[in-house]
Structures are given as structure tokens and as C-alpha cells.
From TrEMBL:
Taxonomy, superkingdom: Bacteria
Protein name: DUF3105 domain-containing protein
UniProt biased composition (Basic and acidic residues): 14-25
Organism: Streptomyces ureilyticus
Transmembrane segments: 32-53
Length: 220
């Protein structure tokens, strides 16, 4: 039995290292593409003047009331999943989410850093939702959670790429775990459902943009 646990642990470590390597490779490619695009844009301005074409498919309004139509359905494992497709538009203002904490929907174009980042103050939910789109698990808690549980969960998050943690005082339960389209409450940091949720949803099949960066975003 100990051997099986060691193999599972080794497999998880290998998976995390692979995600880290993939993310670093993507960041290098993105830097190259950004530099190339900048050169092209500057050259175009010098040669032909300013000719701006707006082809945005995203909503850049200052606020968004794009409440998600749908509801949670609870599975036998206790995980609640959103039963309709969640929108993924980038917006520059607030979003009125239909669930708290939100598990998806329109969001800010900048994600919260989620490479095992623990935040001690409440985050902009529109930035955190973008992290979920990248495959992160978001651990949230309110003042009813014990200090011991908060510390233990923070320790776990800090060791887990594609995860983040922050307080959400107005959430229903003391401790909640959220991923894109999925959510559940847990009784404590020792609840075995914590590990089960992380195993399934960190870069899980629900991820709209699997492998997208969890660094290089907003740090707070």
C-alpha cells in the first residue's frame, strides 16, 4: 500500500513539473510574439500613419451585467457543477455573477497569479475567474474558518501550481473550493475532499484554456 502511495505521489510531482516546464515554454513564446508584434506595429505607424481597426469580439464596457443563466447541480461526490456553458468574454468593469464565489463567466483580461499564490485580502473576482479559466483551483474562506484550517490550506496551496487562495467574507460556507464550472464546500483542511478536488480539477478536463499561464498576471 505504501508503494502505491509513493507511486501516486511521484506521478503527481511529475505532472506538476511538466506543467511548470510547459508554462515556462509558453511564456518564452509569448515574449517573442509580443516583441515581434511591437516591431510590426511601430513600423506600420512610421510608414503609413495611424490606421486603427477595431475587431474586438470582447465586451470592453466599464461594467457588465452578464449574469449566467443556469444553476448548480450537485453530484454524488458533493461537487456542484454549473449546468450551462459559461461565457468567457473579457470585460473592463465589474461582473454580476450568479454564484459566489464565481466559477466562471465574463472576466477581466488579466488573471490573478495562481502559481501557488496565497492572498490575505479579498481579490477582484473578475481577475480570479480568469485564473479558473486557466485551470486553477481557487480556495476561499471567511471569518468562520479556523486559523488552523486557513494555515493548513495556505500550506497546501503554496505547494500546488495552478492554485490560489484568498478570503471571500460573504460566501455561504467557511471554506469553499472552486474551479471553472465546479465548486464544493469542505468541513476543514483535513477533509479528504480537499485532496480529491485538487486531484480532479487542477488543470482538469473542465479547463477551457488548459496550460495557459498562471504567472505574469496580477499580483496583490
Amino acid at each position: 500500500m505504501g508503494s502505491a502511495k509513493n507511486k501516486a505521489s511521484a506521478s503527481r510531482k511529475a505532472r506538476i513539473e511538466e506543467m511548470r516546464r510547459a508554462e515556462k515554454a509558453r511564456e518564452r513564446r509569448n515574449r517573442i510574439l509580443t516583441i515581434t508584434a511591437s516591431v510590426v506595429i511601430v513600423g506600420g505607424l512610421v510608414a503609413g500613419g495611424a490606421y486603427l481597426i477595431s475587431t474586438q469580439s470582447e465586451d470592453d464596457s466599464s461594467t457588465s451585467s452578464a449574469a449566467q443563466k443556469g444553476k448548480f447541480t450537485t453530484g454524488k461526490d458533493g461537487v456542484r457543477t454549473w449546468n450551462t456553458k459559461l461565457t468567457q468574454n473579457h470585460v473592463s468593469g465589474d461582473v454580476k455573477y450568479a454564484m459566489n464565489p464565481p466559477v466562471g463567466g465574463d472576466h477581466n483580461q488579466v488573471w490573478m497569479n495562481c502559481d501557488g499564490d496565497v492572498y490575505t485580502k479579498e481579490l477582484s473576482k473578475t481577475n480570479a475567474v480568469h485564473s479558473l479559466e486557466h485551470g486553477a483551483v481557487w480556495v476561499t474562506y471567511n471569518s468562520k474558518a479556523s486559523d488552523a484550517d486557513v494555515k493548513a490550506l495556505a500550506d497546501k496551496v503554496e505547494k500546488t501550481p495552478y492554485s490560489l487562495m484568498s478570503p471571500v467574507e460573504d460566501q455561504k460556507d467557511p471554506i469553499m473550493l472552486s474551479a471553472w464550472g465546479a465548486q464544493r464546500a469542505v468541513t476543514s483542511a483535513k477533509d479528504p475532499n480537499v485532496n480529491t478536488f485538487f486531484e480532479k480539477y487542477v488543470q482538469g478536463e473542465q479547463t477551457p484554456e488548459k496550460g495557459a499561464a498562471c504567472t505574469g498576471g496580477l499580483a496583490k
